[in-house]
Amino acid sequence: MTLAPVWRTRLYAAGGALLALWIGFAVAQEELFWPLLCLAAVSGLLLIRIQPLPIGTVLLGGALLGYVVGNRGFAQLYAAPSLPLLPAELVLLVGGTVLLVQSAFRQQLPFRRDALNFILLAWILICGARVFFDLRTYGFNAARDFATVYYAAFFFLAQSAAQDAASRRFLAGCLLLGCGILPVTNFLSQQFPMFFLTGLVLRGTPLIYYKGDLVGAFLAIGAVLFFLRFESRRQPWALVISLLLALGTVATNNRASLVGLALAAVVLTLSGRWRFAALLAGGGMFAAVVIACFAFFTNLPWEQTPLNGLYEQVVSIADPLGQRTYQGENTLSKGDNNVFRTVWWRAVIDETVEDNPWFGLGFGHDLADRFLQEYLPEAGDDFSTRSPHNILLTLFGRTGLAGGLPFVLAMLLVGWRTLRCAWSTSSDSAEIGLWCSACIILVSACFGVVLEGPMGAVVFWSLLGMANASFLERQTESAPDRASAGAADLQPAEPAGEIAASS
Length: 503
What we know:
Shape: globular
Strand content: under 5%
Oligomer: single chain
Low-confidence stretches: 493-503
Number of strands: 2
Number of helices: 21
């Protein structure tokens, strides 16, 4: 039995009127949680109706754009005062729920039957078992440190979204747009810092607030993506933007970003796209000549030129113990930074090996305690950083070999698939751009606090999910070709006499 349309409309109207009265009463009592939740649900339904992309894809694209452009400022925004969900957690909640519901209706798993998927799932389960015991000991600190692991859920959200071609283009467009806007907003934030800290704010939180190592990594990613756009569409403006973003990467004074950019250039060269390395070399030589001529005609000492700063940046990469002396204005502390990392890394390794090498010290444990006693005893409570500027050692310290080895295995597989994509003749520029971009962030994560926070982790895991979706799609498309080729090889050869007769 079905209701007549008129009665269905009356029931909907009555339900809406009751809901409106309840929301009005709640707002009058200043209880905003459920009204805001209803508003978010209605907004989501309207968004689904007026645009063709899935709501999870739209939210994920907005998060990518927000974290690249807004960075640390965007990461600290709450959905609402009475709804204490940060952007990453909000996207995970909504997008994850949608993915699980869709998977249930389609009677399929929310992940792919693939080695990288299985390794990451095993890693998440192992770390989840570890944090279950740590929550009773460390409480909120354990949950906060476990974010390093649960941000990996963005891999599965992005992988699922990227199976649709329109969603994949939308996510790539959001990333490209963010990288294109970033140098402008970064420059303005340096020139007018007070405006960004006190003027461009929402409920007291800056909308844009940058973390230096992430800016360098995102600029390097933009340089790669815009170059590949130039190669695929032959748009000269994309080549100009790529070169400017590469120069911006150098100007950030972040060495990990330089290493990541160089690694991407090597991978693109292996794929036959040697023009990117030529662009970097040519642009660098041109800038060097201009700077040298300027220094010569203005009698500017060599030590005060950007060329000396770049030289000392490169040299300091091979100076882990900080034994050299650096004279540049921006490189004066590079030796101390190297010692800072080396001492902290050794302290984490020693403490973990002594106490619990198999399962680690736990989420919530202060990995800086022993390091501060040795390196900076006077810091006391003023030192707030909890991660030793290396994602591998962060995981080893918190989860030991049980949680560290699966992550290392997953990243080795990422490196292997990046090389396979470079060597493959069937891969396109979009896929190799995603793999290279993920590798740039991974390199930065080995020398900074990158994957421990949402600013770098959300972008990294999303890039990795999109790249893996493209990889699996290419493997699926090439499987029938290999099967048909194998079937042709199994066909019996035609006798020579019949061939001669037919000719």
